[in-house]
Amino acid sequence: MKISRLIDVYTHPHAIEAALKSRPRDVVQLCVVEGEPARTYAGILSLAEEGRVEIVNFRSHQHLLDHLRRPDTEGLRNIAAFVYRYELRSFEESLKKLADSPIKEPQLLLMLDSLSDPQNVGAILRTAHGLGADVVLFPQRRTAPITATVANVAVGAIEKMQLIEVVNLNRAVEKLKEEGYWTVGLVVEGGGTFDQIPEVEKVVLVIGSEGKGVRPSIAKPCDFRVTIPMRRADFCLNASVAAGIALYEMSRKIHLLTR
User: Which of 28, 87, 117, 121 is placed for a possible disulfide with 82 were both Cys, Cβ 3.0 to 4.6 Å?
Assistant: First the structure.
């Protein structure tokens, strides 16, 4: 039996533009308010025309809202798109492509453990892409799906990254170690510092949920466990903020930022 793919509503212009560039066949319909808004998004409209995407014009912002069946205007500009939901890639196939890649440069992979807030996931993906971590591994369970919220918060980053589904994170950690990757788990307490990690070429950074960090069963097999030092012991960082700090430290450590 064929399973129908879910359709999401993208409302951030960058997310819409990125989807039109990377997978125009998955963009079902582009909606835009006539007049000045349409002229503002002329580049996006041109991409839609090139990709033969249906374009629907609306006389007002309210007409667009009615079409989208949205009761409010939060996060909605004067453009939106119906897009098939991003499909995660398989772990085995993606790992083989990484191993066979002719480009030999430092690799920073990101693994997310038990992150269920789509806002956090979107923010983390946006930062990860900016810092050079373009391969992200998600568990099959205990994670936020790649919905429109993730895509909009990530402002198009998901279309430029490899997002991979992993059935079992523990086995994935072991497999990546066999392939020559060093694994670094971000834990809430008891870990070392980023300075203690040697300069290596291939790293997997594992990020856990807010206030809990990486689960002990996932952190235990990691080569290194690190903790972000805090001045206030009774304060914990938002997951996306902690991820941003850790991603920056690891990007700097493996010299991704100087290339």
Answer: 28
100-111 per-position pLDDT tens digit: 776 677 889 999
Tell whether pTM > 0.85: yes
Q: pLDDT exceeding 70 applies to what percent of the chain?
A: 93
Nearest residue to 206 (alpha-carbon basis) of 189, 193, 194, 218 = 218
Distance CA 164, CA 96 (A): 12
- Per DSSP, the three-state class of 220 is coil
Could you tell me the residue range of the domain that residue 18 belongs to? 7-84
Q: Give the count of domains, the chain.
A: 2
Please give the full DSSP string across 50-68, using - where no structure is assigned. Answer: HTT-EEEEESSHHHHHHHH
For the chain, the residue count is: 259
